[in-house]
């Protein structure tokens, strides 16, 4: 499915009936051949925007790093060490195969992003995350954001892209709404749960939770993706700074 190197429908079904951790362990060897990997176009847009608006960084942290799509970006933006954190041992193994030769600068830590290890506290100047927030329920955001806040040094930045609300009734709106409904039914009747939703990370509540965790929050347009008919950007880069 997706490509000749991607997972089959059967493999995706098995993964979808597993836990989040086990599902990604199974998907890891073929993950980079699916649309689930963060596109290079998005990574390039975030890197360029961060370089323009947030200045230089020393150490960088990729939260829910997966197979390491954001690691090259962090290596270019940061002068010092870069760390990837993920719950899935399978995803970290794939990332390690790609970046193991750069062990002096890059390391990987297996951890739940809702409970980052205390050893990471006050260590990083920049934290990023791509495509992972659907795996966290709204009630879990405070723990997630508090842990990232603790991992940053004073003045450190937590940055991630966030899309504009989908037009009500558009094909994409129906697709994501239908997917979320199907996942809620799946999780109501099947264990272990697989938490993955598309419509649980709206800007307003996310901004409020970040501020409650101790961040100041601003957004800047990702101009690479254009604007909607009302003039608002399709994508923004959210910059949450520890102050």
Task: Describe the protein.
It comes from Streptomyces virginiae (Streptomyces cinnamonensis). One of its GO terms (biological process) is methylation. The chain is built from eight helices and seven strands. The protein is of the alpha/beta class. It has two domains: 1-36, no CATH class; 38-165 and 202-242, Rossmann fold (3-Layer(aba) Sandwich), CATH 3.40.50. α1 (9-16) packs antiparallel against α2 (20-27) and α6 (141-151) crosses α8. The radius of gyration is 18 Å and the shape is globular.
Task: Give the helices and strands, then pairings.
Blueprint lengths: L8 H8 L3 H8 L12 H14 L6 E4 L7 H7 L4 E5 L2 H11 L6 E5 L13 E5 L12 H11 E12 L7 H19 L13 H10 L2 E7 L13 E8 L1
Parallel strand pairs: 1-2, 1-4, 2-3, 4-5
Antiparallel strand pairs: 5-7, 6-7
Helix pairs in contact: 1-2, 6-8
Pfam families: Methyltransf_25
GO molecular function: methyltransferase activity
Protein name: Class I SAM-dependent methyltransferase
CATH architecture of the largest domain: 3-Layer(aba) Sandwich
SSE-based structural type: alpha/beta
CATH fold-level topology of the largest domain: Rossmann fold
Q: Given the structure, what is the number of helices?
A: 8
Reported for the largest beta sheet, the result is: 7 strands, mixed
What's the total number of strands?
A: 7
- The largest sheet has its strands arranged as 3-2-1-4-5-7-6
Strand content: 15-25%
Give the C-level CATH assignment of the largest domain.
Alpha Beta
Low-confidence stretches: none
Under CATH, the homologous superfamily of the largest domain reads Vaccinia Virus protein VP39
How many domain units?
2
Could you give the distance between the termini?
45 Å
Secondary-structure element series: HHHEHEHEEHEHHEE
Keywords: Methyltransferase, Transferase
Organism: Streptomyces virginiae (Streptomyces cinnamonensis)
InterPro entries: Methyltransf_25 (IPR041698), SAM-dependent_MTases_sf (IPR029063)
Pfam families: Methyltransf_25
């Amino acid at each position: 499915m997706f490509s000749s190197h991607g997972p089959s429908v059967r493999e995706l079904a098995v993964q979808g009936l597993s836990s989040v951790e086990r599902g990604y362990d199974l998907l890891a060897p073929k993950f980079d051949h699916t649309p689930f990997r963060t596109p290079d176009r998005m990574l390039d847009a975030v890197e360029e925007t961060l370089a323009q608006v947030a200045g230089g960084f020393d150490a960088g942290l990729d939260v829910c790093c997966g197979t390491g799509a954001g690691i090259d970006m962090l290596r270019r933006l940061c002068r010092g060490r870069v760390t990837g954190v993920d719950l899935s041992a399978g995803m970290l193994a794939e990332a390690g195969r790609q970046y193991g030769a750069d062990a002096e600068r890059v390391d990987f830590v297996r951890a739940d992003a809702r409970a980052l290890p205390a050893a990471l506290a006050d260590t990083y100047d920049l934290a990023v995350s791509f495509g992972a927030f659907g795996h966290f329920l709204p009630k879990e955001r405070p723990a997630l954001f508090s842990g990232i806040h603790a991992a940053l040094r004073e003045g450190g930045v937590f940055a991630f892209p966030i899309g504009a609300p989908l037009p009500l009734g558009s094909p994409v709106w129906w697709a994501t709404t239908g997917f979320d409904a199907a996942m809620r039914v799946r999780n109501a009747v099947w264990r272990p749960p697989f938490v993955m939703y598309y419509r649980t990370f709206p800007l307003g509540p996310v901004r409020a939770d970040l501020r409650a965790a101790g961040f100041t929050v601003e957004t800047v347009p990702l101009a690479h993706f254009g604007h909607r008919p009302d003039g608002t950007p399709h994508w923004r880069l959210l910059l949450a700074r520890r102050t």
